[in-house]
């Protein structure tokens, strides 16, 4: 059974197409990471699922209900952390959760829920005075009210510090273990790798990839980075490494040799170094990072590493 | 129930607004001052009905201040949440857009009923200790009618608030409606009366000048309120034409207030249902 099913969904605003002919299926019980840079159409897609906006073309089903015609029934069984929300400044955290409980017609202990998201001590404070991270925790708490069948979380880790982001991932895991389907969007990639069964990558309103993390990694080439610590490497040995099958780059600063290669070429690289009279003291391998995969799919694969580092900083800047 | 949940949340939110607190304080002070000032001289008594029906309270206070408070408190009811983003929080929960519009109408009306009730309770004490004979029934009834007037203006503001996409349009609409229904109406009423009642209606209209003027008077919620409140305070409401107006005029005035209560929110909802948020 599909928890979310989009068929040919297109959303146009004037002559801007936010989402173009999107087909997407998320199975029940899955944790699905919805990736893409800002402006790729992730939030528009989520807004269609929640009936905040109506698709120009196509059809969206959530929990086998029409996302537009049966939206209230969808939202009775769904917990949502929307993007670009605001809390009610004058109401306390507890009143927010009480409101969510009354809205969903469930009895429960608001304090227990606030404790679960880590803001129990702020329950009696007005939410307007909360930090962004605390507001994010509060709204996550509201989303968890009534043990929903589906959780839709739009950029859940924005505003959270690393501890908060970790707690968020733990909650996502726990909800998935309970049997809930989790659909969440992110441009912070580490988030997704840790918790998702499957991911979809959006770019310019279209889904450009949909697979498991492993599958994506293979599809992106499956290259690894091998960092070898040596006593001293001369240029001719590094040239010999570079000439090996399966090796795409090799560079040395004397004390370390850094090689990008297919995973089955690693032993040949070490052997070639030793044959050239270089003493290998240690080596580590790094798999292709999700960041690289992501850039590969979003069309930025030629960006040089310095630019990527900048991009990382920007991501953190946005999410901080 | 969904509408009730929205109304309750909105009431809790709105009663904590500084605006509402400030406007309530002004209202309470003014009503108290009027009650104190219109106190009769030594040896005379004044009935509650006479006091409430006096121009001081009915025209100067209730029909200018109550619409103003209602419009200020309610103009942002929907569009304000849309602008800030809290509407996404609200609609993430299982509420229909109709629940939101009518929940807001109920919640904001309840929030305004608080200062109206308080505004009349304090003067009631002043009246009770003075030489004025307090008729509790008339007093409570008048407060309820005032809440009905407030509800009509809340309905207009909420309807507007649901229909437009920006706060600025909602403020403009609220200010425009206030000036149309309160000062402007007051200014043109006398010339219109002369023109239509004395001079008669334009020939192409199938009704008399008297009827046309009556209709114009009914259309304005404050006009309908004045008719009903005046009759109620003098004990003539629905009493078969024993007061200033006939029964049909009283019924029409009531129907008009109910229409104001329902039609603007429904029109606003019609636009709101079709909007992308």
Automatic annotation (TrEMBL), chain A:
Biased composition (Basic and acidic residues): 299-311
Gene Ontology MF, one: ATP binding
Chain segments carrying region Disordered: 299-320
Any single Pfam family the record assigns to this protein: ABC_tran
Highest taxon of source: Archaea
All residue ranges annotated as the ABC transporter domain in the record: 4-229
Membrane-crossing residue ranges in chain numbering: none
Annotated CDD domains: ABC_DR_subfamily_A (cd03230)
Keywords: ATP-binding, Nucleotide-binding, Transport
Stated family: Belongs to the ABC transporter superfamily.
Protein name, UniProt field: Sulfate-transporting ATPase
UniProtKB/TrEMBL annotation, chain B:
Record's signal peptide: none
Record field: transmembrane: 20-38, 60-80, 101-127, 139-162, 169-188, 251-270
Keywords: Membrane, Transmembrane, Transmembrane helix
Pfam families on file: ABC2_membrane_2 (PF12679)
GO MF, one example: ABC-type transporter activity
GO cellular component annotations of the record: plasma membrane
PANTHER family, alphabetized: ABC TRANSPORTER PERMEASE (PTHR43471), ABC TRANSPORTER PERMEASE PROTEIN NOSY-RELATED (PTHR43471:SF1)
Protein name: ABC transporter
